[in-house]
Structure formats: structure tokens, C-alpha cells
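Render Zinc ribbon domain-containing protein in 3D.
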Amino acid sequence: MIYCANCGAKNQANATFCVCANCGAKLVKPAQSSQLTQQVQPVKPAKTGKRRADLKQVRKWEDDLDDVFEDSVSLGEDGHYFFFFPKYKLMVKTYSPTVVTNHENSTIKMNGKNVGKLSASGDYYQKKLDPVIAGRYTFSVSANLSGKTISPSPVKLDLFSNHQVSLNITTGSFTVSSVSLHLR
């Protein structure tokens, strides 16, 4: 028996495609155990100097993140229990970044939700977002140009400030010239 990696259905050992009516994916045959043992290489020990440098870089990133979150999240007192014991609440700073694009009538989405109409500001179109907490957000933009809808790949961004989020679409135009041939 061989199992489909796509849907998990049981298939005959000599099957090429999955028998499942909803799947039909090409089956991948498992490698023979003798083939696997020939390909396995022993693990080489890491160089100590490189490992120390990597560890140093990881600690630097942790410190940078601590600095970012230190400004964004804090614990503050919010009254008392029984007039004596302090009551705490988690206080999270919100940000209102501005989304900017270079095409009018663009649709901007943040985590799949439409953020509203963009207003013109010179050569750009912008919208100040409603307050959001610090974190990673997925932005996507689509625009209608010459009757065609274009939408580049979504962008994942870490928002930790009120800075601009640029979602410009780079476009180009060209003219095609052709030569007509008459065959006799």
C-alpha cells in the first residue's frame, strides 16, 4: 500500500495516481531503505567561531525586538483590589500608519480587509489607517489600469510606528510595431 501525500487515501503499491475522486494527485513512491542509507552523510560539528557569531547576532535581534516592544507594550496599575492589592492591566500602544500608492482608484487591503478609499495628495494617493496594535500585517493593492486589474503579490510588514506604508505599483508601457508580409 502507498498513501497519497495530498489527501491521505490508500492506494495500490503500483498506482501512479491517487484513486480518490476529489484528488487524483500523482503519487510519490517511497525510497528503498538501502537507497536512503547510501545518501546519508555524517553531521559535521559546527565551527565554534561561526556559532559564536551567529549567537551574537541572535542576541542582538532579541535586544532590538525588546526595545521595540518595550515602547509598544507595558503593564500599568489600574486601581486596587480591596483597597490594598494593586490591579494591573496590559496597555498596548496603537499606531495609525498612512498607506500610500501611486495609482488612483486603487483598492488597498490589510489582512484581507478593505481599508477604504484613498485620497489624492500630489502624485500619490493615501489613506491614514484606523489605529492598529504593533505586529505583522499583510497588505495588498490592486488597481484598474486601461481596463485591466493588476495586483502585485501581497507584502508582509511589521508595523511598529506611524510611518508610511508604500504600496506603489511599478508599471511600464511599450509600443509594438509589426511588419506585414505578402506572400505570392
